[in-house]
Amino acid sequence: MAFPHWWPWRVGILNPRPGNVTPGIMNETIAPASFRVAALYRFCRLERFGELRAPLAAFCCGRGIRGTLLLAREGINGTVAGTEAAIAELVAWLTSQPELTGLEVKYSHAAEMPFHRMKVRLKREIVTMGVDGIDPQTSVGTYVAPSEWNELISDPDTIVIDTRNDYEVALGTFRGAVDPRTATFREFPEWVEEHRGELENRKIAMFCTGGIRCEKATAFVKSLGFDDVFHLKGGILKYLEDVPAEESLWEGECFVFDERVSVTHGLEEGEAELCRACRHPLTPAERASAKYSPGISCDYCHDSRSEEDRARYAERQRQVELAARRGREHIGS
Question: Rhodanese domain: from which residue to which, for each copy (predicted)?
Answer without folding.
Answer: 154-248
